[in-house]
Amino acid sequence: MSRLKKYFVYLEKNNHIFVSPLIDYEFPKYTKNHYPTLNEQEIKSIFEKISADHPLCLKGRAIIELAYSSALRPRELYNLKLTDIDFKKGLLFIEQSKNRKDRIVPVGNVALNWVEKYIREVRPKYLKNKTHGYLFISHKTGEPLTRWGIRYAVRESLRINGLKPVKPYSLRSTAATALLLNGMNIAYISTLLGQSDILTTQTYLRVKVRKLQQELTFKHPRVIMEKQYHSKKEVEENEV
Questions:
Q1: Measuring CA to CA, which residue among 70, 75, 97, 104 is closest to residue 195?
Q2: Which contacts of 184-187 are long-range, i.e. CB under 8 A and separated by 24 or more positions?
Q3: CB within 10 Å: which end of the chain, N or C, has fewer?
Q4: What is the secondary structure of 41-54 as a DSSP string?
Q5: Residue 90 phi/psi, 5° resolution?
Q6: What phi and psi, each to the nearest 5 degrees, are found at residue 141?
């Protein structure tokens, strides 16, 4: 509606219409919290319960892991290409994001493992003789996923495993909130999210990708969760 209002203003200024029909229209105000964050138990439950037995679940799992690991926007997920992933260095190249700036962000090993599994086991079946290099593709057409395709993959993979639906953007906000609560510097979080400022008022602080990667290695909840899992497994094996 805001774009439509601007369009009518343009027509009015250029004498194509006498007056904008929306001149007195009051647009409804929405709260900013459209994408609530998940608590620690909710996100942990997703990683514990979601299986990869079904191809759609494996694709959904790869999307969820990637979105949570690097706090990606939905558009950044469906625009990802195979060449944007550096598996050896653990980095993602995000092209022309919301602020029209490219950026490089770290991605965790757990997420990369799931993405590799998806690329190896599912993507070739979905590609259907297409030749594009997009990472996440439709199981019906082989074409790159849209925003709604990303949402569908996440929702269905959760539904199949008896979990409540979660919007992809909530994974981004959940990751950012968890990092903040775990003590990560807000400048690093801002860089990870691809935001041009901190809390809308502070000057944008640039940080090196390597430093950001080191911070994520120690403070990302998915890394901590994985360490706890392996520690518990070692204890159980020693008790046998």
A1: 97
A2: 184/215, 184/219, 185/215
A3: C
A4: HHHHHHHHH---SS
A5: 70, 45
A6: -110, -20
Domain ranges within the chain, ordered by starting residue = 1-30, 40-209
Q: What burial class does residue 50 get, using C-beta atoms within 10 Å of its C-beta: 0-12 exposed, 13-18 middle, 19+ buried? A: buried
Closest by CA position to 136, among listed 195, 197, 179, 72: 72
- Using an 8 Å Cβ cutoff, are 1 and 21 in contact? no
In our burial notation (b when 16+ CB lie closer than 10 A, e otherwise), range 147-168 reads eebbbbbbbbbbeebebeebbb
pTM of the model: 0.75
Question: Over its length of 240 residues, how does the chain's per-residue pLDDT go in tens digits?
Answer: 556 666 667 766 777 666 666 566 665 554 444 567 898 899 999 999 998 889 999 999 999 999 999 999 999 999 999 999 999 999 999 987 666 788 899 999 999 999 999 999 999 999 988 999 999 999 999 999 999 999 999 999 999 999 999 999 999 988 888 887 788 888 788 888 887 665 532 332 344 566 677 778 888 888 888 888 888 888 888 876
Do 69 and 111 contact (CB within 8 A), yes or no?
yes
What are the tokens at 161?
């495993």
Q: Which two tokens stand for residue 118?
A: 């998806």
C-alpha 109/C-alpha 192 separation (Å) is: 17
Q: How far is CA 119 from CA 4, 49, 112, 125, in A?
A: 41, 21, 10, 10
Cα dihedral across residues 110, 113, 115, 117: positive or negative: negative
